[in-house]
Amino acid sequence: MRYELYYWPSIQGRGEFIRLALEEAGADYVDVARGREEDGLGMPALMHFLEGTDAVHPPFAPPFLRAGEQVIGQTANILLFLGPRLGLVPDDEPSRLWAHQLQLTISDLLTEIHDSHHPIASCLYYEDQKPEALRRAADLLERRVPKFLRYFERVAERNPQRDTHLVGSALTYVDLSMFQMIEGLRYAFPRAMARIETAYPRLIALHGRVRARRRIAAYLASERRLRFNEQGIFRRYPELDA
């Protein structure tokens, strides 16, 4: 099956967690909004779903995935759907639910990172809420990021099958998502991460193993991998990197 991923064409954002899973599995997929309009792709194809009246179950916002006749929205929900189909989650239901729970927790952290530079409103420019962002980012780096990373370090340590993974004994989409979180945090807050990341050796080792995987390494070196920028979720504002 050829999957169709719908996400904004110029940022990694929440869509990147899905791209990583598709790339690791070698899945047949098209990144719709990055395609050519003359081929029926591009932003008009994405906006057709958001503004059209055809879909019985319309998505609220990107990312969403089209798989045959199904349209699935929300990052964690998409990965819950893709995980067993791509071989990126164990077969048993308890493990699948555990993976989904961890992915939802990753989503919580991602929201907090976004809100560090847009603490008042997404419709306002960063410069319009900079004093509030400075306060929010300070709390994020002092309390919230360490709290989340301590939790995931503990998850890896207590994994009864293998502490080199977060779920089960083999790579899952949760491992890929944690890789992306470390990548993004290092981009947005390089000074803070240099100071604190040694406290989470299992997560940092996991990041290194994911980066070295054949398909992931090829993807990261390709033009398919968008670069981090200051329009996405992870933004490098040096004044916030205390």
Overall domain count: 2
Strand order of the largest sheet: 2-1-3-4
Radius of gyration: 18 Å
- Class inferred from helices and paired strands: alpha+beta
Give the termini distance in whole angstroms. 46 Å
Largest sheet: 4 strands, mixed
Apparent shape: globular
Please tell me the CATH architecture of the largest domain by its name.
Up-down Bundle
Characteristics:
4-stranded mixed β-sheet, single chain, 2 domains, Glutathione S-transferase Yfyf (Class Pi), Chain A, domain 2, alpha+beta, 6% strand, 242 residues, 4 strands, Glutaredoxin
Sum this structure up briefly.
This protein has 242 residues and is an alpha+beta fold. It is built from 9 helices and 4 strands; from the N terminus they run E-H-E-H-E-E-H-H-H-H-H-H-H.
What does this structure look like?
The chain has 242 residues and is α+β, with helices and mostly antiparallel strands. It folds into 2 domains: 84 residues, Glutaredoxin, CATH 3.40.30; 121 residues, Glutathione S-transferase Yfyf (Class Pi), Chain A, domain 2, CATH 1.20.1050.10. The protein has 9 helices and 4 strands; from the N terminus they run E-H-E-H-E-E-H-H-H-H-H-H-H. It has a 4-stranded mixed sheet, covered by helices on one side. Strand 3 and strand 4 form a beta hairpin. It is globular. The termini are far apart.
